[in-house]
Specification:
Layout (H helix, E strand, L loop, with lengths): L4 E4 L9 H11 L3 E5 L2 H4 L14 H10 L3 E5 L29 H18 L10 E8 L8 H13 L6 E5 L3 H7 L5 E6 L3 H11 L6 E6 L15 H13 L5 E6 L10 E4 L10 E4 L18 H13 L19 E8 L10 E3 L13 E10 L5 E4 L3 E2 L1 E6 L2 E7 L7 E2 L6 E10 L14 E2 L4 E2 L3 E2 L3 E5 L17 E8 L6 E4 L5 E6 L2 E7 L6 E4 L7 E8 L7 E3 L1 E2 L6
Parallel strand pairs: 1-2, 1-8, 2-3, 3-4, 4-5, 5-6, 6-7, 7-8
Antiparallel strand pairs: 9-10, 11-24, 11-30, 12-23, 13-19, 13-23, 14-18, 14-21, 15-20, 16-17, 16-19, 21-22, 24-29, 25-28, 25-31, 26-27, 26-29
Helix pairs in contact: 4-5, 8-9
Length: about 575
């Protein structure tokens, strides 16, 4: 079998949209598809499992087999993947344990998960006549830890649950990565940008007896909110691809087809802006789109990079390019009228709040994603008091007696002050957004909401809080009540079935959108992503849209739609 692989993640593709992308992968020459398996989607709460909708792993494996595509499966507890918490369930963060280690407390949870997960994919192993030709034990562990026992225990757990055949790991190619990420005797792969010969030579120096597996060839790059969109140079990507082929590398494009971080599933990095060395290290959330400059764009269509790499591949093997599949694709631009608006504050019910001396984290309250509201009473000192939230995760809109004061975000220099006459009392409310848990590095496993104290002036603690986890009811907008504060918006629109569109959110500020009850993801006017992808498979003749907009709406309006993403 000729080996040429590409990553596509079933959980980033709306049901019904997978086949088009796999057809284009086959037309390129791909013979193997690689996918992660996100623990946090499949076990969102301890002991509660999901394997349908976006979580239909078995449907993905069945389709791969039907289309004669082999599979590299990555079911490890941790996946990174620019995904919330690197795929680890949020509820692990509320327990005192060492993540990604042989800590028995962590491994008990992994064992419980594998007992449910493995029976889903074991029937599709190559030894059982299925498409899975390799199972990844962990992901880039050499960049995280040194617990060789942990890697061995993971492999043994998989074997105990019926997983046989080829195992593999994949890491960077620096000596420390290969030292701590490899398992003696197990096939190892390398991840890198475009420096193919250097990476392959480094891998061969420690594993000369196996073909060099390129676990991830980073043909694109992650996109951060509020950061420049930096596409990789196509010629560099083609050059690195050909260099890998010339040096005998078994290539895997990451990503070949990126898809979308639907819902609140985007992760975050802690680092610097690409190409901006003088900016401090800080928290940087990923965008909703996971197009990530992949060979297939967010709606699953070939890009110029696809065609350039495809030509280079068939030139290299000395054969003419096969014909492209005759796939019909149409996009549309329906007119969407937003006709209803209600104040968010009208829906706040503090009767469900939990009281505490200091604020509680989302995890302590059993909340996974989204927004949380904190309230306390503050007595004025007669002077302006600066507000501090050292453990903010991640962004807080501050309101005093429901008047917006300003916004604080972790690692950013914003300033917010409380100005209350001496002896008078006022109500402080903090609308805090979890913007995505860090997915890579030493901050993995962070808690969200407010972790610790809220302070004013010279370190004075504010005590006695009401903590209200928010499941914002987007159903309740009725009539149009203009507001400059947080609002719930609704509208309806007609559309053609099975035709994609993109919501143009440039006229909005910040929030998230659902269409027909499906959570499309977040938007934010800081860029570089200004659209939200609406899969055609989601649309019907009559559709409903609901929006949580943090900074209000003044009048009924029409939300524009376009036929392609806007990344600037």
């Amino acid at each position: 079998m000729r080996f040429l692989a590409g990553d596509i993640h079933y959980y980033r593709i709306y049901p019904g949209g997978l086949r088009r992308r796999l057809e284009y992968m086959k037309a390129f020459g791909i013979t193997v598809v690689q996918t992660y398996v996100p623990w946090n989607l499949h076990e969102p709460q301890k002991g509660t499992f999901c394997f349908d909708g976006l979580c239909d792993l078995e449907g993905f494996l069945k389709m791969a087999k039907e289309m004669d595509l082999k599979v590299l499966l990555r079911p490890s507890p941790y996946i990174c993947s620019e995904w919330d918490n690197g795929g680890l369930p949020y509820w692990l963060n509320n327990e005192n344990m060492s993540l990604r280690s042989s800590d028995p407390r962590f491994m008990r949870h992994v064992a419980d998960y594998y007992k449910v997960l493995c029976p889903v994919f074991v029937p599709y192993l190559h030894s059982n006549g299925g498409p899975i030709i390799g199972t990844c034990i962990e992901n880039e562990y050499g960049s995280y830890g040194s617990d060789a026992e942990y890697l061995t225990q993971l492999m043994e757990l998989l074997q105990e649950n019926g997983v046989d055949g080829a195992f593999y790991t994949t890491d960077g190619y620096a000596p420390v990565h290969m030292q701590y990420g490899h398992i003696p005797g197990i096939w190892a792969g390398v991840n890198y940008r475009v420096e193919s010969k250097r990476a392959i030579d480094a891998l061969r120096s420690v594993q000369p007896d196996k073909p060099p597996l390129i676990g991830e060839y980073w043909s694109g790059r992650a996109i951060h909110k509020g950061e420049p969109y930096c596409a990789r140079n196509i010629n560099d990507v083609v050059g690195g691809f050909v260099e890998a082929l010339e040096n005998g590398g078994l290539m895997t494009f990451y990503m070949f087809a990126g898809g979308t971080n639907f819902g609140f599933m985007n992760g975050a990095n802690y680092g610097r802006t690409f190409g901006v060395s003088d900016r401090p290290m800080r928290y940087i959330p990923h965008t909703t789109t996971y197009e990530d400059d992949a060979l297939l764009n967010e709606q699953g269509l070939p890009t110029p990079k696809y065609f350039a790499c495809r030509k280079a591949f068939w030139d290299f093997i000395g054969q003419p390019e096969p014909p492209m599949p005759d796939l019909t694709y149409e996009a549309q631009t329906p007119e969407i009228k937003i006709t209803e608006c209600a104040s968010f504050w009208d829906q706040v019910d503090y009767g469900k709040a939990v009281k505490s001396i200091e604020p509680l984290t989302m995890e302590e309250l059993g909340q996974d994603y989204g927004y949380i509201l904190y309230r306390t009473e503050v007595t004025g000192s007669g002077a302006k008091m600066k507000l501090y939230i050292p453990g903010l995760g991640d962004r807080a809109d501050a309101y005093l007696d429901r008047k917006y004061l300003g916004t604080l975000m972790r690692d950013r220099p914003q300033e917010v002050y409380l100005d209350i006459p001496r002896g008078q009392k006022a109500t402080l409310e903090l609308l805090v957004e979890n913007m995505g848990r860090i997915n890579f590095g030493e901050l993995l496993g962070e808690t969200k909401g407010i972790n610790g104290s809220v302070l004013v002036s010279c370190g004075v603690h504010l005590y006695h809080w009401e903590n209200l986890p928010l499941d914002i009811d987007l159903e309740k907008a009725s009539g149009f009540n203009p507001t400059s504060g947080p609002a719930v918006l609704k509208g309806t629109f007609r559309a053609e079935e099975n035709k994609d569109t993109f919501l143009d959110m440039r006229g909005m500020s910040k929030g998230y959108v659902t269409v027909n009850g499906f959570h499309l993801g977040r938007y934010w006017n800081v860029g570089p992503q200004y659209t939200l992808y609406v899969p055609g498979e989601l649309l019907k003749k009559e559709n409903e849209i609901r929006i949580f907009e943090q900074y209000g709406a003044e009048q009924p309006f029409t939300l524009p739609t376009v036929t392609d993403s806007i990344l600037e």
